[in-house]
Each structure stands twice: as C-alpha cells, then as structure tokens.
Write a structure and sequence with these properties.
Layout lengths: L2 E4 L5 H18 L2 H8 L3 H25 L6 H9 L1 H33 L10 H19 L6 H23 L3 H5 L12 H8 L5 H7 L7 H30 L10 H9 L4 H37 L18 H18 L3 H29 L14 H13 L5 H25 L5 H7 L29 E6 L2 H18 L2 E9 L6 H6 L1 H4 L3 H14 L4 E8 L3 H10 L4 E6 L3 H8 L1 H6 L5 E6 L7 E5 L6 H15 L2 E7 L3 H14 L6 E5 L3 H9 L4 E5 L5 H7 L2 H6 L5 E6 L6 H6 L1
Parallel strand pairs: 1-4, 2-3, 2-5, 3-4, 5-6, 7-8, 7-10, 8-9, 10-11
Antiparallel strand pairs: 6-11
Helix pairs in contact: 1-7, 1-10, 1-11, 1-13, 2-9, 3-9, 3-11, 3-15, 3-16, 4-5, 4-15, 5-6, 5-13, 5-14, 5-15, 5-17, 6-13, 6-14, 7-11, 7-13, 10-11, 12-13, 13-14, 15-16, 15-17, 19-22, 19-26
InterPro entries: AA/rel_permease1, APC_superfamily, UspA
Keywords: Cell membrane, Membrane, Plasmid, Transmembrane, Transmembrane helix
Subcellular location: Cell membrane
Length: 747
C-alpha cells in the first residue's frame, strides 16, 4: 500500500484571484444601477461600509482557517465549535446562500447576454431569465463534467477583468463630472438613512472571500497565504468598488444608470465616437466572463460544503457520490443546479430578492463563525491558529453585531424568506441530523464537563502528509520518478534505479491522481478507488521493479487538482535531487504549456529528465552537445549509465570548422569526466547530424536548449522537433538555473 498525500495546489496568487474573481462579478457589473436607484450617489459609501463589515468578518475567517484548513469553510468551524444544531443552520444556510448567489450571478449574465444576443421570452419568463436559465444550465453542466475553475484559469480570468476595468477607469476618469455625480438632489437624495439599506443590498458583492476558506485544505502554506488572500481580496475589491462606482456615477447620472447593464451604459458614454462600440463589446464580454466565473465558483464551493456536511452526517452522504467517469460529486451539483433553476424562474424578475437573500444567509453564517471563534479561544487548549485576530474579543463580537445588525436593513420580504430557510434547517436537524450526527460540538462538551478541560482535542489537524513523511533518511540522494502510464513504468523506474545506484541513493515513486476542482481532495481520498483504479497497481509494479534492481524505494499517491504542476510541487516538497518523468512525442509541449504561468514565475525544482515512451535501453548512447547549460546534466547521466549499466557512449558536436570542433569536444569530454567515449565531430545542420548518428543507437540524451518559454510553446524547439522523427529513444535533460524575465519569455 502506497502512502497517500493531499496536494497543496493553490498558492497565494491563485487563492487571491478566487476571492477577487467572485466578488468583481456582482459589485461592478450587476449591482451599481440597482443600488444607486435605492440610495443615490451615497451608494459609494454603502459599498465602503460593506467592505468594512466584510473586513471584520474576514479577520475571523482568517484565524479559523489557519487553525483548521479544512474543506467546508464556515460550516466546518461552526459545527466543530457550536455543534450539529448550529452546524445545520450554517451548512444549509451557506448552501442555500450559494444557490441564491449563483442564481443572482446567472441573472447578471443574462442581462449582459441580452445586450449582445436577442433572447425570446418564454411563458412567464423574460428574455433575461431565459438567458440566465441557459447560463445556469451550462454552469451546472461544466461543474458536472469537472471543468477547472481555480488556480491558473481563475488567475487568467481575473487578469483579463482587471485589464478591462482599468481601461474603463482611465477613460471614465477623463469623462468624469462631479456635477453628474451629485445630480440635482445632491449626494443623498433619499437621505443618509439610505446608506445602510444600500449596504444590505450590495453586501452580496463581498461573499467571494469566504470561498477561499472552502479551499483552505488545498492552500500552500495556509498559515501565511490564507489570511493574506482573504484580507487582501476584501481590500482590493473594496477599493475597486469605490473607484469604479464613483466613476460610473460621474459619467451617467445616478437616476439614469441602467439597472440591467450599468457598466455597458457608462462605457458607451465615456468612450468617444467610433471607439464606443468596440469598448462596449469588450466590457460586455468581460461582464459575461465575470458573472460566469462567479456563478461557477459558487456552484463549486457548494459541492465542498455538501461534502463536509455529508462527512459529519448532517446531510446524507448520497449527495457526495462520485461520478464513475468524471470523478465529480454529480448528485450534489445536480441538486444545487435544480435550486438555482427554481430561483431564477421564480425570483429572477426581482434581482434585489436574490441579492439580499444570499446576503442574509451568509450574514447569519458569519455571525455564527464569530461566535465559534470565541468558543474555540475560551474552551479549547489545543486551538492554535497561525493568524490571530487583533483586539480579541472585540473583533469577533463586533463581527457578530455588524452581521446581525445589517439584517435589519435588508427588507421584510427577504428577511422572511431567509428566516424560512433557517427554520427549515432546524426542522431538518431535529428530523434527520440529530439521530445521525455522531460528533458533539466543543461548546456542548464544555458545558457537559462543567468547564473542565476536555479529555481530547476537538480541532482536527490538517489532512495532509508532511513531505518525506515516511521517515526516510532525507540526507540520502533522492531520485523521484513520476509515473502515469503502466506502459512506461518499467522504463522510467529502470532509468531512475540506474541513476540512484550511481549516487547510492533511493527512489521516490509517485503517481498524481488529478481530481476535478469540484471534488475536494478529502472527498477524493475517501473515494480514491472510484477516482483511480490503476494507482495502487502502478506503484506496486514500481516497488517490485525497484526491489528487483536493488534500490530502496518509497511510493506515494498524490491527490491533486493540478496535473504537471503538481509533479514539480511534489519535487519541491520532498526536496528531491532529480526528477524523472515520461512523455509521448510532442505532447510534452502541451504538458509544459499547462504550467506556463508557473514557469514564468518559478524555476525548475531540480534536475529534470524526460524519457519518451519508446523504452529504456542504455547500451548504445548518443550524446549531442553544444556546451549549453543543461549539457552538464547530460554528461552526468551518461557517466552514471556507463558505470551502472555498462553503456557505450558516443559524444557528438556539430561545428562549422572540424578542427575547432574536435578541440572543443576533447576539452568538453575531459572537463566532464567522460572516459572511453567515441568522439564524433560533424558539420552542417544540427538536426540532420543527430538524425544520422542516432541510427543504430538505443538512447539519445539531449540537453534542453536555451530558448525561452514563448518560443518553446509556440514554435517548438530543436529538442521537441526531432523527437517524432527518430527511431531511437530520446532522453531530455534540463538543469534549473536563474533566469531574468526576458530570458523566461524569449530565451
């Protein structure tokens, strides 16, 4: 049985963009017109106050998240601290709140879609509702089949949105008029008492930061990155809202601002003449992207919450059944999707109801989370968060007061609607969950023990396996082999074993199971046999091969939302000396493109060797070299295979002058300690020479070129272009080295 670990897929940037991407969709593209008609120009203050309330709650969420980086977010904290009664309210409230929010985002999508494509009304549904239903069905379908949302994709989406909003902000500022902002009625035509009702309406714009906590289990360094991402996303979007809403109201009078597509209208006014049409199209496409991303992220988060509730038996675990083909919690997604469709159909003509209902349910959860924080602090001696809220207990108490206080301004209809869901959650607890939930909350245990210290800790440790968690000697040189295909397993292990023998080192054989973003890693771990039936067999074969070759081996299955990126992360986490992986022809280019952003930011974690699928036979090796950076690694590999596999090595250099080429090659071979090798010097085309000399060889070792990321992905490189033309197995070798931004891009 191999060791298993849950990958830490998300860095600070990815976590930050999850929060920003979700919040931008509502606050900028959907609500400004509706909110301005409610409060007038002072709606800008409504957004700022909403940001301040969110910030107080974000501090508490950050502390709880660093103490318990677990799937489920707010529900998990409330259930552990206050027990399954309040956990039912928090979990079901969060779930329903996300369904309301997804319906709200889908309506926003429909509003902007209607400005691009005429949509027919059907029965009692408006054209916007029809567009929203189509969008909602697509979002549910995307999550059903497991398309990605977090990480790199979300980062790209947010980058595009920020670029579009920056373009509008610059041009909008040039068209800004203070008289237009204030209008005839001044800053507060409805009185300053309209500010807080405006805040209650726009608070749905600040729900995205809490979604970061639902993926806390998958964050790298959550003690640092979780609070930075949560607090940073709230600060960034609050500033964006204040600036952009002010500019919108300074371009279009608040009374005239569209309630369906406000940013499109403001863009049309701000941009001159012929540019207006292009700018409006770009902004509209950005709005569609933003609202789609927000809706998609809300559906994704709901699946994480359902898993956490199912794990605690608050809801039936039937919801968390994993799809046999897509590996997604398809039942949970379909049930959530059905609720979204009902909300769009019944409430979609009044977007305020959807916005406020989502806000109310989340505000109730935030109040309970603040209470949970106090309970943890006061009763659990093992509670040890990496981040602590300032001014405790004032901060969580203030969070409860502000969250519950804002409920007074949401309106009677929305309050009654949301109260009905809270009552339904209580009924559900007493009718279903009470008899099944087997975990009592910390508060209940403390009361039963009359304030005495609890006999066991309540806060769970993060569900991860520490790097090198098996206790292996980390001073021994480690060669990591990343396995994915049973057909190439033996060749990769044989290569890794030959190199490990040369170093008197050990092997770390890993298999990354890529899990859809809709399925939490903890859920995947519980149902690993449904996600991948080949992992155990693959690693068992690797153990048998390594033992037969006389090399100590450790095996690990890694559950991850990434593909190739997680291989590099695992190499860093386990501090390996070299990484060996496989590829199929030019498919390597596509695999590297998957981690393009990562390559721009980071260097390779260690020496990397990539073996193609044609097998491994080191008896006759061809080693072309031009003296590049990675040729040092090629020489090391060839020398190791000489000693451990009795390989015959021929070294090839292509030069314009045969004499100078011979001199270069003799010096290079001597510098790299290669003995008893054949020296080959050729003139002419490099690829032609390699192709000719590879004939009759069993292995060609090629060092990576110095060409940069863009040229490698777009145009290919020498290494990649010859792979499919050779009949000989090719081993690519790349050694990490520091590169400037220019070198990363262009080589």
């Amino acid at each position: 049985m191999s060791d298993e670990e849950l990958a830490k897929d998300l860095g600070l940037l990815s976590a930050l963009t999850i929060g920003i991407g979700t919040m931008i969709g509502a606050g900028i593209f959907v609500l400004p017109g509706v909110a301005a008609s409610t409060a007038g120009p002072v709606v800008v203050i409504s957004f700022v106050i909403g940001g301040l309330i969110a910030m107080v709650n974000a501090l508490s969420v950050s502390e709880l998240g660093t103490a318990m980086p677990k799937a489920g977010g707010g529900y998990y904290y409330v259930n552990r601290a206050l027990g399954p009664l309040f956990g039912s309210i928090a979990g079901l409230g969060d779930w329903m709140g996300l369904a309301f929010a997804s319906a709200f985002y889908s309506i926003g999508f429909g509003q902007y879609l209607a400005t691009l494509i005429p949509m027919p009304g059907v029965l009692f549904l408006t054209d916007i509702q029809v567009g929203a239903l189509v969008a909602g069905a697509v979002f549910v379908g995307v999550n059903y089949i497991g398309a990605k949302e977090t990480g790199g994709v979300q980062t790209v989406i947010v980058t595009i949105l920020l670029a579009i909003l920056t373009l509008f902000a610059v041009q909008g500022w040039l068209s800004f008029d203070l008289a237009t902002l204030l209008g005839d009625g001044g800053a507060a035509p409805f009185g300053y008492g309209a500010i807080l009702p405006g805040t209650a309406l726009v608070f749905v714009s600040f729900l995205g930061y809490a979604k970061i906590a639902t993926v806390a289990e998958e964050l790298k360094n959550p003690g640092r990155n979780l609070p930075l991402a949560i607090i940073g996303s709230v600060v960034i979007v609050t500033v964006l809202y204040a600036i952009l809403v002010s500019i919108m109201l300074g371009v279009v009078p608040w009374a005239d601002l569209s309630q369906s597509a406000p940013l499109t209208q403001a863009t049309q006014v701000a941009f001159p003449g012929g540019l207006a049409g292009v700018a409006v199209t770009i902004v509209t496409l950005g709005a569609l992207l933003a609202t789609a991303s927000s809706a998609n992220a809300s559906i994704l988060a709901s699946a994480r919450i359902n898993f956490a509730m199912g794990r605690d038996r608050i809801v039936t675990n039937w919801l968390n059944e994993i799809h046999p083909s897509y590996a997604t919690p398809y039942r949970s997604i379909l049930v959530t999707g059905a609720m979204i469709v009902v909300f769009i159909a019944l409430l979609g003509q009044d977007i305020e109801v959807l916005a406020k209902a989502a806000s109310v349910l989340h505000l109730v959860v935030y109040a309970l989370m603040n209470a949970a924080l106090i309970v943890f602090r006061e009763t659990d001696p093992d509670y040890d968060p990496a981040f602590r809220v300032p001014l405790y207990p004032i901060t969580p108490i203030l969070g409860m007061i502000l969250s519950l206080g804002l409920l007074a301004f949401v309106g009677q209809r929305e309050l009654l609607l949301s109260a009905a869901f809270v009552v339904a959650a209580l009924v559900w607890y007493f009718a279903y969950a009470r008899r099944r939930a087997d975990r009592q909350g910390l508060l209940g245990r403390h009361i039963l023990n009359r304030g005495e210290e609890l006999p066991f800790p309540v806060v769970d440790a993060a569900a991860t396996v520490a790097p090198n968690g098996s206790g292996a000697d980390t001073d021994v040189p480690t060669t990591m082999v990343a396995l994915s295909n049973p057909r190439t397993e033996h060749s990769l292990v044989a290569l890794a074993a030959a190199l490990a023998k040369h170093d008197d080192g050990r092997l770390l054989a890993t298999h990354v199971i890529q899990v859809p973003d809709q399925t939490s890693l903890a859920a995947a771990a519980d149902r690993r046999e449904r996600i991948s039936e080949t992992s155990e067999e693959l690693l068992a074969d690797a153990r048998a091969d390594a033992e037969e070759l006389g090399v100590p081996v450790e095996t690990r299955t890694i559950l991850s939302h990434q593909g190739i990126g997680e291989v590099f992360d695992a190499a860093r986490a386990h501090d390996v000396d070299r990484l060996i992986m496989g590829h199929q022809g030019t498919r390597l280019a596509g695999s590297r493109a998957e981690g393009a952003l990562d390559e721009l930011i980071h260097d390779l974690p260690c020496d990397v060797l990539v073996l193609d699928e044609r097998g491994f036979d080191p008896s006759e090796i061809l080693l072309p070299t031009a003296g590049g950076h990675s040729s040092d690694l090629s020489a090391e590999v060839a020398r190791a295979l000489q000693e451990t596999a009795d390989a015959n090595v021929s070294v090839l250099h292509v030069a314009d002058d045969l004499g100078k080429g011979q001199e270069f090659l003799e010096n290079w071979v001597a510098e790299h300690g290669l003995d008893e090798v054949d020296l080959l010097v050729e003139t002419g085309d490099v690829e032609t020479a390699i192709g000719a000399e590879a004939a009759g060889r069993t292995l060609v070792i090629v060092g990576a070129t110095e060409r940069g990321l863009l040229s490698r992905i777009v145009g290919g490189s020498l290494n990649l272009s010859i792979l499919d033309e050779l009949d000989t197995t090719v081993l690519l070798a790349e050694r990490p080295h520091s590169r400037s931004i220019r070198e990363r891009l262009f080589g």
